[in-house]
Amino acid sequence: MSSTLPNSPLTTYVLNTGDGAPGARMALSLHRLDSLLVIWNLVTVGTTDEDGRCPGLITTKAFTPGMYKMRFETGQYWESLGQNSFYPYVEIVFTITNPNERFHLPLLLSRFSYSTYRGS
């Protein structure tokens, strides 16, 4: 990402549960659904840092109610570690009704499973 937005209302964290380590250097993208055209519009792209975090995903002004999708490029991540994975990517679709709240979207990941939850 080109700049850091310290007050992003949406944050994420990737944990490689197989190795018990942060999911560092994983490419990801954030998309918003255009409900009229029913297509996903790219909001931003980024890469997790050494701690598995990707700060500055979206500004408070741009974070409006609607449906969003965060796509994690898990296949590329595992390939960079010299391993294969069952999931070439993971897409997490979620709805924002109150953009004044803060949202944390962690991805807990192994080569053959993943889980997520809504944090704050």
From TrEMBL:
Pathway: Purine metabolism; urate degradation; (S)-allantoin from urate: step 2/3. One of its GO terms (biological process) is purine nucleobase metabolic process. InterPro entries: Hydroxyisourate_hydrolase, Transthyretin/HIU_hydrolase, Transthyretin/HIU_hydrolase_d, Transthyretin/HIU_hydrolase_sf. Signal peptide: none annotated. SMART domains: TR_THY. Pfam families: Transthyretin (PF00576). Gene3D superfamilies: Transthyretin/hydroxyisourate hydrolase domain. Residues 6-119 form the Transthyretin/hydroxyisourate hydrolase domain. GO terms for cellular component: peroxisome. Its EC number is 3.5.2.17. Its main location: other. Keywords: Hydrolase, Peroxisome, Purine metabolism. GO terms for molecular function: hydroxyisourate hydrolase activity. It is found in: Peroxisome. It comes from the Eukaryota. It catalyses: 5-hydroxyisourate + H2O = 5-hydroxy-2-oxo-4-ureido-2,5-dihydro-1H-imidazole-5-carboxylate + H(+). Belongs to the transthyretin family. 5-hydroxyisourate hydrolase subfamily. Catalyzes the hydrolysis of 5-hydroxyisourate (HIU) to 2-oxo-4-hydroxy-4-carboxy-5-ureidoimidazoline (OHCU). NCBIfam families: hdxy_isourate (TIGR02962). Homotetramer. This is 5-hydroxyisourate hydrolase.
